[in-house]
Amino acid sequence: MRPEQTTPVRDEALAICGVGAQLGGHRILEDVSLRVARGEVVGLLGRNGAGKTTLLRVASRALLPDRGRVEIAGQDVHRLSRRALARLVATVPQDMHVPFPYRAGEIVLMGRTPHQGLFGFESAHDVELAHAALERVGIVNLADRRIDTLSGGERQLVLFARALTQDPGWLLLDEPTAFLDLRHRIDVLRVVRDFAAQGGGALVVSHDLGLAARICDRLVVLAGGRVHAEGTPADVLTPAVLREAFGMQAHILSAPDGSPVVVPHV
To answer: Does the global pTM surpass 0.85?
Structure first.
């Protein structure tokens, strides 16, 4: 009998494979590997200068690594067109300079650009998706405001809504709650969890260890440009890891939902 033939299963993940990168002659990343599967939220932690933002830039193809590669669903990102990549991955930077005073609603609608035709005319469906993203993030009231009149936190919410409008498979979020008050932090992270529940994947850079522990399925800690620890929040947020990777002493308590709470020694 001939052996039964099977169709290879495509790896539905964003995979960073042995990546190394340097900036200004300084090596920032060295042999970093991690995966973000569909349906999960992965937190990327580390002290300032650990390489978190650089890794997001490599993952989004904004920075070319000198070693390793990044794959999405088994495809090398550097073999994808910009339009094809933008349909798969949306990035939310810490902040972004907008050279023209676009209205917030116009910027959110720009998220549909990778899905539009040659002449770039938005459809009724595009407008509907943009409005839905504004509602999900809770900023419909900002739609007609010029971006240069918004606060840092409001601009961050606009960029987040634009990323959702892009309808990607993966979100790369660089400190998405950095400028937000507590209520909006919770709202944004709830939307990220909903995004994962609907089949998307998210890689979230955060300095808020408590919220990262509550929202993320796994945590990856960078230190010295390398992966220092990886696992569930309970496995990663330990006194030893915090001491070695962050240079801090801390107690680890347990929240009512069982997630770890970091209480630094002061």
So the answer is: yes
CATH number belonging to the domain at 13-97+167-264, selected among 3.40.50.1220, 1.10.565.10, 2.30.42.10, 3.40.50.300: 3.40.50.300
Q: What is the pLDDT of residues 73-113, one digit of tens each?
A: 889 999 999 999 999 999 998 877 777 889 999 999 999 99
- Report how far residue 266's alpha carbon sits from residue 260's, in angstroms, rounded to the nearest whole number: 19
Mean pLDDT of the chain, nearest integer: 90
User: Would you kindly state where each structural domain of the chain is located, as residue ranges?
Assistant: 13-97+167-264
Secondary structure in 3-state letters for 79-96: HCCHHHHHHHEEEECCCC
For residue 22, give the H/E element and its range. Answer: strand 13-23
What residue spans of the chain are helical by DSSP H? 52-59, 82-88, 104-109, 124-137, 152-165, 182-197, 209-215, 233-236, 239-241
